Automatic annotation (TrEMBL):
GO MF terms held by the record: transmembrane transporter activity
Membrane spanning stretches: 7-26, 46-67, 74-93, 168-188, 195-216, 228-250
Record SUPFAM superfamilies: MFS general substrate transporter
Keywords of this entry: Membrane, Transmembrane, Transmembrane helix
Entry-linked InterPro entries: MFS_sugar_transport-like, MFS_trans_sf
Subcellular location: Membrane
Topology class, membrane: Multi-pass membrane protein
Protein name, as recorded: Major facilitator superfamily (MFS) profile domain-containing protein
Amino acid sequence: MELVTSFAPNLILFNVCRFFVMLFNGGKHCVCNPFFMENLPDRHRMWVATVVTYSPTYILLSLAAYLCGDWRTLARFSSALTLVPLVLLFFVYDTPRWLILKGRDVEAEEAALAIKKWDAKITDELREKFHQAIKAESDRQKAQQMAMKHKYNVLDIFKSWTLTKYDIVFSTSLFSASFVSYGVAYNMDAIAGNVYVNVIILGGARYAINIIAALVELNFKNVGRRLLHITTIAVIVLLMAALMLTEFLIHPELMALKKARMEGRPVNSAIETISLVTRYAALLAAAMCTEVFVLDAVQPSELFPTPIRSGGNALIQVFNRLGTICSPLAFIPAAGWPAAPYLLMTLTSLADLVLYSMWIPETRGKPLPDKMPADMKEEEPDGNPLLISATTTPDDEEPQARARHLGGH
């Protein structure tokens, strides 16, 4: 569809084509995020998701757009790039966790061994160990499914208050992050400075924040998902509140400064300094949202049980898109009250901060849940760590404790 878009003769057909491009792009998000998390060990989920992210593409896409020269060529170039992951997908295994749940034990064993080949030599003893572990896990899953009253779907999220809370929080969080991030990005003309320079600063700041967060999370065990999320959102709230207060107090002076610059007249140095600070504050707040996007890709997959993991991610992604849709409209209320856009961004971010702080637990070091709350029994283990994707890795310092927690041997 990306290729078809490049041949669109008018705006209507262009929008129709883009609708389907984004429809399938959204589907890709719903599938890839859970798949990504199920294949990565716990200690590597955050840093990999942080480094391999959208931020570098801000700069790369700008370079590609410059080289392509027009949007049609850029669309054809981006469609050609999608051939690379399309080919690579033929070499990817479904996760053992999912295959066992679907009753495909032989494929689950092949997938588990293929994953294990990356860090160990596959011996006959290890192969037999995997075979027995998968058989035991398969028998356990079959017994659970026999006891289930029905097959689960996304609507079952709302039959559990715990899962409903998760959905509310991450939906709010993604809406807020999209609203702030793209609200600033799509309204660069409302921010001091050159638009193109601001975009470059935003892209660079996003990736710098990603790298810093990845290093901190990887090297400090006491820094978990909760601390990163709460700290990030708290900074965004403070920055947006400061911008709101600035616009409320000295908006006429800022407008006078902008006019003086355009006319080449002398400017007030104090107001110019404040304008510069507000510029970087707005860009920093938008850049901080990149970490929220990463956390909201990792944590939902760590909290939603396997039967509704993809459905849960799909549901919260709707609000991600809704925030993106609303973000270009963020600065329209500024015509009536200059501080209004920043007030809206402050309120959405504050809602994220409050709800997340109340309802979301720490997930670092915890196994991915397989069972719905209605099927949970305290005496039952949640799965075998040997084959359930990557709950443990050879370099974990407490594999035995984690194995006991998971019911492993």
